[in-house]
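User: I'm designing a mutation panel for Gnk2-homologous domain and want to avoid disrupting the core. Could you give me a predicted structure to guide residue selection? Please restate the sequence first so the numbering is unambiguous.

Assistant: Good idea. Sequence first, for numbering, then the predicted structure tokens:
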Amino acid sequence: MFSTFGSVPILTVVAIQLFLIRNVLSLNLTNAYLHHKCNNTQGIYKRGSAFEKNLNIALRTVIFNGDFRTGFRYGDVGEDPNTVFVMYQCRGDSYWSNCRTCVTTALSGLRKRCPGNKGAIIWYDQCLFEISTVDSYHKIDYENDFYLSNPKNVSNRELFNRETSALLEKLTTKATDKKNIDGANQLVLYAAGEKRIGTKKVYAMVQCTKDLVFTTCSSCLEWIFRMYSDCCDGKQGGRVLGTSCNFSNTQGKYKQGSAFEKNLNLVLSTITSIGNFRDGFRYTEEGEDPNNVFVMFQCRGDSYWSKCPPCISTAVSGLRRRCPRNKGAIIWYDQCLLKISSVASFNKIDYENDFYLSNPKNMSDRELFNKETSALLEKLANKASDRNNLDGKQLVLYAAGEKRIGTKKVSAMVQCTKDLIFTKCFECLEGILRKFPECCDGKQGGRVLGTSCNFRRGSLEMNDGDKAMWHHVLCRSRRM
């Protein structure tokens, strides 16, 4: 994000629990929304549950008893497994009343954008707000960060990069100085400054959340500036924001000829030649740590036997082409899903990796259509996750059905991968069906496709789209 005061560019960078940065004189005191993340890996809470009650108590406490003087609060409410952890950090130049206003806005925004999520983060220009089921005090969150930049380039890129990098390094040293404490005897972990580069004056800020010690803050800021080239190379302004600033938990890339590549080639050739296409599912691994390769495929519930092998072969080829040398990747086709990973995921719900597609055409009676299709999908979810719904001795974890709504016949499918037990299948489907309004509100057709479960529904027969059409691919550089 780029802001100006007159003709003065402001370079904003935020780190570590990396936070906002603006000019040293607080030239911009807006409370603009920047970004949010609903952390689906932590699950969904039910209305009236112990978790929801603890969350409401924690949020009320933050608003009425928050320490807005220092701009930071970290607290927890409840006992495991319903403990709620809450954290906010206001920008270093936005404490007191500005902090309270931003946190109140963030709380409202988080409830609206991530309803029912046990874990969520939202960023505004003057504050960061996070709820979680995981205690992260003094710990760096390695997953959640993003950057914004001004698309306009500077005239002398090399000079600008060199001088702004020097400014940011200077501010990092100041922010992480253990003698840099505030009136409450707390580490400040914040610094702002300016520098003239040619005819331009550049402002910058760096900040860490106040639960970190100065050494951890220093390491984080040092790392996050490595993202400078991705974010801000030659740009007039930019910022990196996060609740973390390190990707040390990446799956990364494998090298040609490495042990990982050999294991991957072996396991992929195995699943295409002797995969269990009768029940449309395979989960297997090859190699020893740190070169383990985990591979999973799941064919659509009506596409086993002869339809499954061609889709898997196509997916293997597609994944190699679209994600060359990635240790973690997922690809979805109309009749199958294929995933490779360096991390074991058997019987674990993947809340993170999903997407949706929808038919742009609307139904005439939106309210009736939504109500009836939701009822159909709930019925199918119950059927798919029924422990008595067996194929031989295996859980089917799949159901399809149809319903007439007015003059239209609506077909639908739900499915879970066969590594899940029936209770986890129901939990996964329950979570993914919450995305119905986002995906399919009043639409003639739609689907939400995840790694662990999916649903599809539309006013056309489901088999009308049976071509081996590539839908989506995700090349992961982080853990899956």
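For picking mutation sites, this is relevant: The first strand starts at residue 3 and ends at 5. The CA atoms of residues 179 and 187 lie 8 Å apart.
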